[in-house]
């Protein structure tokens, strides 16, 4: 349905609706969820996030004069309530921010860190000398990294906020107190986690009421989390980084809150309060490439996102994708990321621990040396070898190594404000449901981010840049991105999806910049992801495209992934990513676009809407 209304009529209807909701809500009852639209257009600021409550929280902050940083904190904190399996203060993430005063793009690295007591062999089972199975690492205290989200929020507010942390946490407290209405998506995501949540008394109490999946239409409250946010609001982030909340967190990691009758024997973790005290969110310089005249800014290590998206764009810059036959254009897209992922595996890790040749990896010369390996007549055979960025030799190949892989869940949201600032923020607790451990009495799930390290070396005789070390940040794929055109914001995009994040962001950029789609279509379009593996994972809708036969004739192979990485008996939707984006039009309009249907669809809204265009 496409609704087009005048600014003034929408404004008055929207404000009246807001007032009605406030007046009509009884204490303790969930507010009716604001309407969920995947696309909105208008002026003076916008939010696209996973849930209507989190989007509304951001819009409310923007309407009160908050900046994109203020609103981002309100959105992220509310997602901790309404989207708790992929968000919250138990996790970490990466924020890319355009500051309209300085015209600069900056980034904050809020990635989790490894406790000081951990070592390179932390994921090797001492009883066998072999790496733990992935699911063993996931549901454990061992994989819990020191969370970075709260420190990121505080740092963003210090740099760009107008309101206090306490102010920006308030909308989330209200949603947690009143509760939100459980929908099909929330129930489904709980189903995928139910067996793990049942292992921990605190997790079962919060997310499996009466031991059952929450009923669609029921109200899910989280009083513990509301109180935790209030405590943090009063005491500051030190409550978590060394204080009372931190003590409870450390206790949960060391002494797992197992349910009576739990069948797993999860491994506890060695985290100490001193690990929390030592945590810092880092101001880092963004990655930058110029792609067909657009300045593309992304996240530098500890995320591999900015470099790998950037290298792929640089490789593709060698080809005229726009005027290529569609089969060839997609073939080049798949081949570019096949090559870039080989380089990612070989060279990218936490740059405070390993020497990441970022500048060389992002140089046009290196990209040219990789581009000439793309054969228009046939697909590469993975694993393909990494290149040598220190001395790029055209078309040179080296020794192939196995491709480490991951493919899980998180959330991405975007915010802009009336001042012209833009936030693109991907954050996560890693696996859907993280470690599955809710901190008792605190209402938030702990991450299992340390499983993003390689459990064992993956690079043959070459060093693996992504092995664990004390204090190190595991390599991420999160790729929050901001694109400027002539120095002004043009796009802000990002997605969840483990290492598929990189290809999803790339695909959206290509769809928008090269293939002439509008942002809404660029996000909705079917996806496929090639990460230096023999077979590309693809959505069923991608395989149904008329281009597939031609791609297969070139040797491209596709498979659908519809099972949980933790348990092959658990069926999941065979989708890739849950993207959101903003596009800034020359007339001052902002187009806010998310998913029409993946993972239940996105909630887009603008401060002064001219169109809800779904
Ligand atoms: N842990 C993943 C990463 O940092 C993100 C989680 C996900 O999207 O699955 O790349």
Automatic annotation (TrEMBL):
<dbReference type="InterPro" id="IPR029055">
    <property type="entry name" value="Ntn_hydrolases_N"/>
</dbReference>
<keyword id="KW-0378">Hydrolase</keyword>
<dbReference type="Pfam" id="PF01019">
    <property type="entry name" value="G_glu_transpept"/>
</dbReference>
<dbReference type="InterPro" id="IPR043138">
    <property type="entry name" value="GGT_lsub"/>
</dbReference>
<keyword id="KW-0317">Glutathione biosynthesis</keyword>
<feature type="region of interest" description="Disordered">
    <location>
        <begin position="383"/>
        <end position="404"/>
    </location>
</feature>
<keyword id="KW-0012">Acyltransferase</keyword>
<keyword id="KW-0808">Transferase</keyword>
<feature type="region of interest" description="Disordered">
    <location>
        <begin position="456"/>
        <end position="478"/>
    </location>
</feature>
<dbReference type="InterPro" id="IPR000101">
    <property type="entry name" value="GGT_peptidase"/>
</dbReference>
<dbReference type="GO" id="GO:0103068">
    <property type="term" value="F:leukotriene C4 gamma-glutamyl transferase activity"/>
</dbReference>
<protein>
    <recommendedName>
        <fullName>Glutathione hydrolase proenzyme</fullName>
        <ecNumber>2.3.2.2</ecNumber>
        <ecNumber>3.4.19.13</ecNumber>
    </recommendedName>
</protein>
<comment type="pathway">
    <text>Sulfur metabolism; glutathione metabolism.</text>
</comment>
<keyword id="KW-0865">Zymogen</keyword>
<keyword id="KW-0732">Signal</keyword>
<comment type="subunit">
    <text>This enzyme consists of two polypeptide chains, which are synthesized in precursor form from a single polypeptide.</text>
</comment>
<dbReference type="InterPro" id="IPR051792">
    <property type="entry name" value="GGT_bact"/>
</dbReference>
<feature type="signal peptide">
    <location>
        <begin position="1"/>
        <end position="25"/>
    </location>
</feature>
<dbReference type="InterPro" id="IPR043137">
    <property type="entry name" value="GGT_ssub_C"/>
</dbReference>
<comment type="similarity">
    <text>Belongs to the gamma-glutamyltransferase family.</text>
</comment>
